[in-house]
Design goal:
Blueprint lengths: L7 E6 L3 E6 L2 E6 L5 H17 L4 E7 L6 H14 L3 E7 L4 H18 L5 E4 L2 H14 L7 H11 L7
Parallel strand pairs: 3-4, 4-5, 5-6
Antiparallel strand pairs: 1-2, 2-3
Length: 165
């Protein structure tokens, strides 16, 4: 199933975090280290999206900043718990190439696995592989997908941080 008519919706667009939804796909890029206040703002925006697509939401995440502190990790856990039943799967972009990239993706995958999340998380190396994976994830669950290329374009559109005017 494909929903090529899904509209790109802006949820958050600031210098720390950019989030778009495309149908049941939520795409987010953290351009700064996640902080509790940003996570709480994100939760307020994504909760209605998860309610709208309670049968399955796919998340795409890329992080450019450092790791979250304890407060932010706690806020992440709280947010995930509040929406976990609707998460069909997560794709994480770690765009580092070559051997170093494989090592980093392996480390991220191991850390995610240790969290024991109730949904699958796949760590991938490019917007194209993210788009293909998320599209396949949704289609395998018989859920509407905006299509691999649309997902890839949504991610590419927010990979750069917001520039000051």
């Amino acid at each position: 199933m494909s929903d090529q008519t899904a509209q790109l919706e802006v949820l958050i667009d600031d210098r720390d975090l950019r989030v778009r939804t495309l149908g049941r796909v939520a795409v987010m890029v953290w351009h700064a280290t996640p902080r509790r206040a940003a996570i709480e703002a994100l939760r307020a925006k994504v909760t209605p999206h998860h309610e709208r697509y309670a049968d399955g939401v796919a998340l795409v995440v890329a992080a450019r900043g450092g790791p979250p502190d304890d407060e932010a990790r706690t806020a992440f856990r709280e947010m995930v718990r509040s929406v976990e039943k609707s998460i069909a799967g997560v794709a994480v972009l770690v765009g580092v190439r070559g051997f170093r990239g494989a090592v980093v993706r392996g480390a991220v995958s191991a850390a995610v696995l240790a969290l024991g999340l109730p949904f699958g998380v796949k760590v991938l190396d490019s917007p194209a592989t993210i788009g293909d994976h998320v599209d396949r994830l949704l289609r395998d669950r018989r859920l509407d997908s905006p299509g691999a290329r649309s997902i890839e374009r949504a991610l590419a559109a927010i990979e750069s941080p917001v520039t000051a005017a």
